[in-house]
Amino acid sequence: MKEIIPRPQSVIPAKKGGTYDFTKVDSVVVDPKLSSSEKLIFSLLEKGLGKKLAKEGTAPIKIDFAAELSPQSYRIEVDEDGIKISAGDAIGALYAVQTLRVGSMMGTDKFDKEVPCGKVNDYPRYKWRGILLDEARHFFGEDEVKKLLDVMCMHKLNVLHWHLSDDQGWRIEIKKYPLLTEVGSSRDKSQIHGWLSTDVDDVPVSGFYTQEKIKEIVAYAAERGISVIPEIDMPAHLAAAMAAYPWLGCRELKRDPHYYFGSRIPLSQGIKDWNRSACIGKPTTLEFIRGVIDEVCELFPAPYFHIGGDEAPKDEWKNCPACQQLMQSLGLKNEKQLQGWFINEVAQYVKSKGKRLIGWNEVLEGNNLDRDVVVQYWTPQRDYRVIKHVKKGGNVVISKHKYFYFDMPYAQYPLKNTYMFNPYFEGFTSMYDNKVKGIEGALWTEWISTPSKLEFQLFPRMEALAEASWYGGPKNFKKFLQRVKDYTPLLDMYGLNYAKEEIYRPTNPFARVKTIRTWYGGNENVEYEKNDNKH
Ligand code: ACM
Ligand code: ZN
To answer: What residues contact 68, with CB distance under 8 A and at least 6 apart?
Structure first.
């Protein structure tokens, strides 16, 4: 059995060696307390063994609930007579089977015959091990999302942060506001050739998830131990919604969802107010937001709602009678405080539904953030307010740019950044270990329009994220690189595309700079085109 990713916390081979013949397994006996994982456990093992398994037999894998183990944790004991698994919950049981399966399948599409005798003791370092998928900028659809969920489960990742709305698209059906998808889910072209370019293609982008489809995907994820957390970005990054309902803005402007990303194109056309925030002063805006949240929260059982809250300009609020009047009546001194008030209002509303709000670190701008709001820390520059929030007892999820922005070129952020991540590099100390809920890789898709490129940006970064979020022991990047290579047959088995080593581990500094320059202002596919893409 080869070393899997993420590495288990402890693997102790039996002193006297020996192996168990995996092909003898004829049944799986699952404790009724763990039954919610039973179906998937059978299907994974049956696929690997190439045969049907019974619920009782002479050579069973026995899976028991163990009250002393915490959720997501498990133990595997293998001796010459069989395999025994103990798990803290159904997901722990599923993870144990993933460990057995992945460890036996490296290099092949069928299990190795021999499983070495010994003991595995395993549990996660962080409770939150996530991937953000941006389907607002480009839309990938159900099949790709399910494929990612399967592979996330193999990597023991447990949060899909689903970015469902932005300036360029609205991707979730809201029955009370049908124009959100009728108007907000389509654009007829997109900016290409990077942030510094003004080039545009002529490829329409459209698509959204019906509420029924969302429920189906959320259930599919839950079966794999994955919580799906919806993000409806506001008060900015809301242009697709404002295209549908212009009254959401301080000024009613007739504009389409953006086909451009960032400021280069609008500024070249003299459009200075391209980045807009919704009007907070008009009561209709909060009524709209509450209506959206009502429906969204019904669809997602996860105990979090993500409000975004990033990159919100305040200039329109300064000139808006409604916003100014609200500020005056609340005694707010400036527009940052207005943003803070808005975030806390939504936090209260979400709380009334038994959920916690999460937002990007700009939600700290108002300086009075409700301590229960989880802060997701992304900004490239250090934000000392994040540490202050943690010191006051608040929680944080870390997605800092240079480790976790998987949309960036590998030349800029090589694989090693993600693998080596340590919160102590970013001003956290061991005192706050229990305040860091976890880490999340962000796959923004301004420059990703196909599943193949999506996977190229994501693999093997997902492996590095899995190891950084699950395994708490010492790191060895050189050995990790070998393990990443050993792992590729598994990615092939799922039909995934992935970057090759000379791309995820660029070594020539001059070539790196040249690639980065090209990526930003000439060809965002410069690395992708150099790769041996699988599809
Ligand atoms: C972000 O990248 N604006 C969260
Ligand atoms: Zn306003």
So the answer is: none
| Backbone region of residue 153 per phi and psi (left: phi > 0; alpha: psi in -120 to 50; beta: other values) | alpha
- C-alpha dist (Å) from residue 278 to 20, 251, 292: 62, 9, 14
Active site residue 311: yes
Domain positions in the chain are 10-122, 128-372+383-395+416-434+446-474
pLDDT tens figures, 338-375: 999 999 999 999 999 999 999 999 999 999 999 999 99
Ligand 1: atom nearest CA of 401 is 2
Residue type present at position 112: D
- What CATH topology corresponds to 128-372+383-395+416-434+446-474? TIM Barrel (3.20.20)
Work out the burial of residue 200: count CB atoms within 10 Å of its CB; fewer than 13 is exposed, 13-18 middle, 19 or more buried: middle
CA distance linking residue 64 with residue 82, whole number of Å? 14
The architecture CATH gives domain 10-122: 2-Layer Sandwich (3.30)
Task: Enter the pTM of the model.
Answer: 0.98
Q: Is 378 in the pocket of ligand 1 (CB under 6 A)?
A: yes
Point out the ligand 1 atom lying closest to the alpha carbon of residue 310.
3
Tell me whether residue 237 is one of the annotated catalytic residues.
Answer: yes
Distance CA 281, CA 341 (A): 11
CA dihedral of 317, 349, 170, 150, whole degrees rounded to 10: 140
